[in-house]
Each structure stands twice: as structure tokens, then as C-alpha cells.
Amino acid sequence: MTLDATHDPDLKSWVESADGHPEWPIQNLPLGVFSTAGKGARIGTAIGEKILDLRAIAERGLIEDEDVAEALRSRVLNALFALGADAMADLRARLSVLLSDEAHRAEVEPHLVAMDATEMQLPTHVGDYTDFYVGIHHATNVGKVFRPDNPLLPNYKYVPIGYHGRASSIRVSGHPLVRPSGQVKAPDAEVPVRRPSARLDYELEMAIWIGEGNALGEPIPIEEAGQHIAGYGLLNDWSARDLQGWEYQPLGPFLAKNFLSTVSPWVITPQALAPFMKPMKPRPDGDPAPLPYLTGGEEKCALGVRLEVLLTTAKMREAGEAPYRLSKGEADAAMYWSAQQVVTHHASNGCNLQPGDLLGTGTLSMADEDGFGSLLELSKAGKQPIALPNGETRTFLEDGDEVTLVARCEADGAVPIGFGKCAGQVLPARG
Ligand code: MN
């Protein structure tokens, strides 16, 4: 991924609110789907405090490529993603010109919508969702809870571990989380009971959106994996730990995970992230090298993305208090496997990925406690309550709690960009 005119730190948009905007300067240009009262869902890009209606731009004849213009008339991003990385890079270049060159202002400006008058939608029709487990500190921390003598299983450093999740229960940021009920068995109990989860948790993850797919039976070489990634976002893989502990063996996560997964609405493209990508950190001494099919590819494939988890309890909300930061960290420091490696691994048996599919990285925890990406880790599996500034404590989530994931990229010589947010509030169980 090379830098070009769209990354120029001196480039400014004629949209005034974009200049110095913490998330949506002209160097970002994320893709999303929005709706306004009375109008159906449309594809747009965020620019400052506005959203540019890309359907309208295409209909005005401002996008030359006919396939791209047609894809922008859709209500989801799948058709655009299917056109591949080059078409998306060309679209970015065009949007950068339309939003920076004063000559285009008169024809483009009428198609800007105030962001606060819109509602964001899921960016794609998600055909399939797979969650990985690339956060090695998380894998080790969780392994210690379930298997104190044997935290990291021997396959971890060879196989990017994942499981097939459920697409139907993916929702965009803001959708509430109804506390799930399910089977729970206390360690000293003979038999399980069914009740509302008492160990409801979040998982800080990044979303990887699949661009161009691969045909069934045709693996994706590691050198080409980046071409199949349309972009990135934030993902909260809500988890009911008490359900999980009882059901997870032998086939892995099921009802402890599939009651809701929340994504941030904006797709941050690989082009936007180019100035912030880093080389993968070398593996620690003594770790095996990845097998050849997972070796090579782009030199800079580690995500230089700063992540934060914020908590607002009902009491804090009533008192008008600011959210409390539960953790902070960097994606590249947490990820043992890159996004490219998980894409290549997923397709390595010939499994076909399709445009708009969603992959989760797995929980991204830092080595240190202030960067743990779940309450299971922060509260030491519920043994060590977290003290909040207002005197409340938490081991797991309570009704009324709101969890918000945010992310940001900063690097020398680049204009910082943001990801928007991935938020959800816990509602009481319904039985
Ligand atoms: Mn997960």
C-alpha cells in the first residue's frame, strides 16, 4: 500500500468542519451506509461533521467508472467491495478531489447531509461471520482461567484459531443488548439451571471487512490477501462467560456469543490506514516460524491502531459523568497473526470468502493489565472487582451499563484519523 496525494497532510477539504476533525478529515474518507428520515439507506463517506451522499454523486455523473457508479446505487457496500481494491482506491482518489477542489464545490455541496441528522446502518449484508483469536495475551489470560496448567494450547502458534459465528445477530453501534439467559452450572452444583447470565462481558476486537471474494476451491495466496480486505472497523463480541464455561467443550462458542455482536458503522479502508501500518513484530525467540503459506506478503501488515474501551454505568449517566476508560492498547501489539494471515488461512482449504463477509480479530489485549480487552481479564474472572471513580464496582456488566469501543491512528507526518464508535447498552433479561 503506497502513499499518494490522498494522504498529503497539507490537503484540505472545502468542507470547513473537516479541517482538523479528530476522526473524519479528508485523509480518512471511510465508507458507510446511512439513512435520513423519509429516505432509504444510502452509501456515504464521512467528511467532518457531514456525510457525502455517494448515491447522489454517482447519479449526478460525478463518478466516471460505470461499475463503481452502479455499485454506489446499492443500499449496502457488498457490490462495491466485490469490485476489488483497485476500484476502491480509484474511488478514494476521486472523492479526495471532489471534496478538496473548489471547482467541484457547487455540484457536490448540495449532497452533503449533517451527520447528526442521520442514522447509521450495517455497512454490508453480512453473509458470513468468522471470529478469530489472534490476541495472544488474551488467549493466554483466558487459557489461565479455564486451564491454569496449560493456558496456551500447542496449536496456537501454528494455526490462526477461529470459529464460525452467526451473521444474523450482527448489529451496528447503538443497538441495545438484551441480557441473554441460558444454561449455567456452578462448579459445586450437580446439574445446570437456566437463568439470565450473571457474567456478561464485552470483547474488544477489530472487524475485518472482506472485499473481493475468492472462488470455492481457490485459496488466497498470502501475497494477495491484502487485496481481499475492503477495510476495518471495531467489533464488540459480547460474551456470556457463565454460559460459555458450561457449553464450550467440545465444539467451542455457541449461545454464549451469538445473541448479539456489535460493529462500528464506518469501514476504514486499507488506503486510509496506509500511513499507520507497521511491520509485524518479530516473534519471540523460540516461537516457531509460520508455515510457508502464511509467510511473506506485504511488509507492513500490522495495524497501528490505538484502541480504548469506555464504560458508562446508569448511575454515571444520570449524574452526567464522563465515561470511565477501562483499558487502552494498540492493535499491532496484541495481534500474533495479521489480518492478511487470517484471510489466507481462512481460504487455505478452498473455503470461499465473499464480499461483505465479516471477520473478527479476537479480543485484543495488551500484555499489561491496563490494556486487557475484556472484563474476564480485568476482574480476574470476577475475583477482583474493578473500582469506578464514583464508588461503584464491576466484575461483569450490569443492566444499564454502556460499553463503547473507540479507535484512533496517529503517526509522524500523517493527519490523525478515527474509527467512530462501537457502542451498546445492556438491557435487563427478558426471561
Ligand atoms: Mn471473540
What does this protein look like?
By secondary structure, this protein is an alpha+beta fold. The chain has two domains: 5-121, SH3 type barrels; 129-427, Fumarylacetoacetase-like, C-terminal domain (Fumarylacetoacetate hydrolase, domain 2). The chain has helices at 54-59, 66-71, 78-82, 85-100, 105-108, 136-146, 241-247, 270-273, 314-318, 331-334, 339-347, 375-378; strands at 31-36, 42-47, 50-53, 112-114, 118-121, 129-132, 162-164, 170-172, 177-178, 181-184, 193-196, 200-201, 204-210, 229-236, 239-240, 261-263, 306-312, 324-330, 358-360, 386-387, 393-394, 402-409, 417-427. The strands form six sheets. It has a seven-stranded mixed β-sheet with strand order 7-6-19-13-14-16-8, covered by helices on one side. Strands 4-3-2-1-5 form a five-stranded antiparallel β-sheet. A five-stranded mixed β-sheet has the order 9-23-22-17-18. β10 and β11 (193-196) form a beta hairpin. The mean pLDDT is 97. The protein binds manganese (II) ion. Manganese (II) ion binds at residues 131, 203, 205, 237, 360, 362-363.
Outline of the structure:
The protein has 431 residues and is an alpha+beta fold. The protein has helices at 54-59, 66-71, 78-82, 85-100, 105-108, 136-146, 241-247, 270-273, 314-318, 331-334, 339-347, 375-378, and strands at 31-36, 42-47, 50-53, 112-114, 118-121, 129-132, 162-164, 170-172, 177-178, 181-184, 193-196, 200-201, 204-210, 229-236, 239-240, 261-263, 306-312, 324-330, 358-360, 386-387, 393-394, 402-409, 417-427.
Highest CATH level, the class of the largest domain: Alpha Beta
Strand percent estimate: 15-25%
Secondary-structure-based class equals alpha+beta
CATH topology term of the largest domain: Fumarylacetoacetate hydrolase, domain 2
Low-confidence stretches: none
CATH superfamily of the largest domain: Fumarylacetoacetase-like, C-terminal domain
**Major sheet size, sense and barrel closure:** 7 strands, mixed
